[in-house]
Amino acid sequence: MLSAIHRGRYGRQVIETDRHLSRIKDDSLESGKNRANWMEETMAHIVVLGAGLGGTIMAYEMREKLRASDTLTVINQGTTYSFVPSNPWVAVGWRDRDDITVDLSTVFARRKIALRPEGARKVLPKENRVELNDGSFVDYDYLIIATGPDLAFDEVPGLGPDGYTQSVCHIDHAMAARPNFDALVKKPGPVIVGAIQGASCYGPAYEFAFILDTALRRAKVRDQVPMTFVTPEPYVGHLGLDGVGAPSRCSKAPCATVTSSGSPMPR
Ligand SMILES: Cc1cc2nc3c(=O)[nH]c(=O)nc-3n(C[C@H](O)[C@H](O)[C@H](O)COP(=O)(O)OP(=O)(O)OC[C@H]3O[C@@H](n4cnc5c(N)ncnc54)[C@H](O)[C@@H]3O)c2cc1C
User: Fold this and answer.
1) Is residue 138 a contact partner of residue 129, using CB atoms and an 8 Å limit?
2) Ligand 1: which residue has its CA nearest to atom 2?
């Protein structure tokens, strides 16, 4: 998840205003006009870029922390929230697209969060604005960026759903993987599951290996599907985090494993 907060023009003004708040209060405590001006000055527009796991939760949290005068906008690619961790279940048919997606227009409207589904083309930090894909602009005082991963299938020739492998990184990939899972059940054969070097998150590869194992058992074809797990991790269970749990437990998994040294791990 790429996330960052850029302070905007208005944000600095808010701090400046806070610093002088007591003086303003002293000078014009009774002045309704000045009070109205102060309220106007401190109003801020917060923009969240990306409505995935990070952006949506951020927007909800922000809404609770903002003042009534502040406004909140989420810019996303489309109106749909998709729960990424459930993608493996979609790939083996345990869930459908509708089960793991939510239409954000209604839930955001209920929480007074504006939604711009056009997607962002460019962030213009010097101007405190985001250019959308339709050529329109959204101005901000604070920008929170949560646009998710840039999937690097291009780094390994043939990798990814446009190449020769299946993916559960995105709901569309998982949907595309499902007919291939069905084909595997109809005509069982060897399967390789894994993650590649440079991946930021290895857990889903293990998760998918076990989900696939269960789904094949339920389809009563597991005995006809030799499974191999391939990973660049220095040891099984490293997960890109230098280990979660005991590696010896992982080596008892019912599949052959090839690590970055190229040597198979004991079954
Ligand atoms: C199979 C799998 C299982 C996982 N399981 C777990 C788990 O159990 N626990 C866990 O903590 N994590 C898990 N993860 C990781 C977790 O899903 C990600 O870390 C998380 O989804 C990242 O959230 P995000 O908001 O950064 O990105 P995403 O959820 O990918 O959301 C990014 C959003 O930004 C939008 N966007 C992108 N570009 C633009 C643009 N130019 N303009 C507007 N919008 C844009 C996209 O449309 C999307 O809505 C799993 C990941 C996978 C793939």
Assistant:
1) yes
2) 85
Span 225-248, pLDDT tens digits: 999 999 999 988 888 888 776 554
| Predicted structure pTM score | 0.81
Ligand 1 site, residue 146, Cβ cutoff 6 A: yes
For residues 61 and 15, state if they share a domain.
yes
Q: What is the DSSP secondary-structure string of 153-170?
A: GGGSTT-STTTTS---SS
Q: Specify whether 132 is located in the same domain as 188.
A: no
Check whether residue 115 and residue 203 sit in a common domain: no
> Ligand 1 mean position to 83 CA, how many Å?
8
Whether 113 and 160 map to the same domain: the answer is no
Is any atom of ligand 1 closer than 6 Å to the C-beta of 201? yes
